[in-house]
């Protein structure tokens, strides 16, 4: 039994799934501290001297990874080998399981530069509200291949979101689920859309991102109001001023991978600015350092960039692609500081949108920033589609 009693696997789960614990070797933390001690900051420039650029970094002295590790390990962790056409993938996931036969399985998928950490506030809230006997859901939060504790993509294959979708559908089958729901944003939203489109065991999908181009030739059903027009302006600004990192990931992933893997301050600057720019309220430095430390000690800065060739490279795919048009009823949560806060009228062209909720605060890392609001949306959406799961999803 794992922490808090929520770690008992479903009755039909594969015996290959094993409990696991996060335990970063002390020598890795000591090496990080040494690198930080001897790393030099860039000299002052016009850009890094602008107002708001002076937050103090005390990573090596004030940040306590072990404290965060203890909190991370208060949730049940697992690993499972998944035998795929591309080889064997050792997949890590956090699982909070119910003992109810009618519990609905929900898989939460993160993106870049996120991780399973984003969803821990939601899991923390639910484990305080319920017991294993009363929890109405199974909650599964995997690490994407190439991220943190999951295996990296193979060296001889251009790994794509389609591959991640296949692997995660296999994960849910190994857990014994005959039907399940997916919630995701960023890369996780793209993978989730593919799962919902291509794998019949996925019965429901909720998204909080939908990056796509203007559906100018589609029939627009809903009007675009003032708030959504403002969101479109943010979307346009991001396309012109905020996508440099994505183009680098898509066209020179090896180069930027070497840079980000060579020095922790480089990784902090590359990822930290995303947490600052893509959120509504600036997250604490502790939150940022927890995520960046996790990326550093798991050496995933280079192995996590695979999706960008598919979605930002030549002939890029998007949520608006006809091959992933959703016939199933899906839901969407709109947050104003998302990097692509697109109007409902656009999102409706990508499938059968039955739930749409617009919020006044929140940004790209919705599960981390506004966990209560996002979870309330998931539950409200689920109430409208609950019949698709049947009396026993396992």
UniProtKB/TrEMBL annotation:
Residues 17-119 form the Epoxide hydrolase N-terminal domain. InterPro entries: AB_hydrolase_fold, Epox_hydrolase-like, Epoxide_hydro_N, Epoxide_hydrolase. Pfam families: EHN (PF06441). Keywords: Hydrolase. Belongs to the peptidase S33 family. This is Epoxide hydrolase N-terminal domain-containing protein. It comes from Exophiala sideris.
């Amino acid at each position: 039994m794992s922490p808090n009693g929520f770690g008992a696997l479903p009755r039909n789960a594969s015996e290959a799934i094993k409990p696991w614990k996060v335990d970063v070797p002390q020598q890795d933390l000591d090496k990080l501290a040494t690198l930080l001690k001897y790393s030099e900051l860039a000299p002052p420039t016009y850009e890094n001297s602008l107002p708001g650029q002076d937050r103090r970094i005390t990573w090596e002295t004030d940040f306590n990874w072990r404290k965060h590790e203890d909190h991370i390990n208060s949730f049940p962790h697992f690993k499972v080998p998944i035998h795929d056409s591309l080889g064997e993938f050792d997949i890590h996931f956090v699982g909070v399981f119910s003992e109810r036969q009618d519990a609905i399985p929900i898989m939460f998928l993160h993106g870049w530069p996120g991780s399973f950490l984003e969803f821990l506030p939601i899991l923390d809230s639910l484990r305080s509200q319920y017991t294993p006997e009363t929890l109405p859901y199974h909650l599964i939060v995997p690490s994407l291949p190439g991220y943190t504790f999951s295996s990296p993509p193979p060296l001889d294959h251009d790994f794509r979101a389609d591959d991640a979708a296949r692997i995660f559908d296999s994960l849910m089958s190994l857990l014994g689920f005959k039907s399940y729901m997916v919630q995701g944003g960023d890369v996780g939203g793209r993978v989730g859309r593919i799962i919902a489109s291509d794998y019949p065991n996925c019965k429901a999908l909720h998204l909080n991102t939908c990056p796509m181009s203007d559906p100018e030739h589609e029939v627009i059903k809903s009007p675009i109001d003032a708030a959504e027009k403002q969101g479109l302006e943010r979307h346009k600004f991001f396309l012109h001023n905020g996508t440099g990192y994505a183009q680098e990931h898509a066209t020179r992933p090896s180069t930027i991978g070497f840079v980000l893997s060579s020095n922790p301050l480089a990784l902090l600057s590359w990822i930290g600015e995303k947490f600052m720019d893509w959120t509504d309220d600036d997250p604490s430095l502790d939150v940022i350092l927890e995520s960046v430390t996790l990326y550093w000690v798991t050496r995933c800065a280079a192995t996590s960039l695979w999706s960008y060739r598919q979605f930002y490279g030549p002939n890029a795919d998007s949520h608006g692609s006809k091959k992933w048009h959703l016939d199933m009823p899906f839901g969407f949560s709109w947050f104003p500081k998302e990097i692509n806060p697109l109007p409902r009228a656009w999102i409706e062209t990508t499938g059968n949108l039955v739930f749409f909720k617009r919020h006044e605060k929140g940004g790209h890392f919705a599960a981390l920033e506004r966990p209560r609001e996002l979870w309330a949306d998931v539950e409200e959406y689920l109430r409208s589609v609950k019949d698709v799961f049947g009396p026993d999803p396992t």
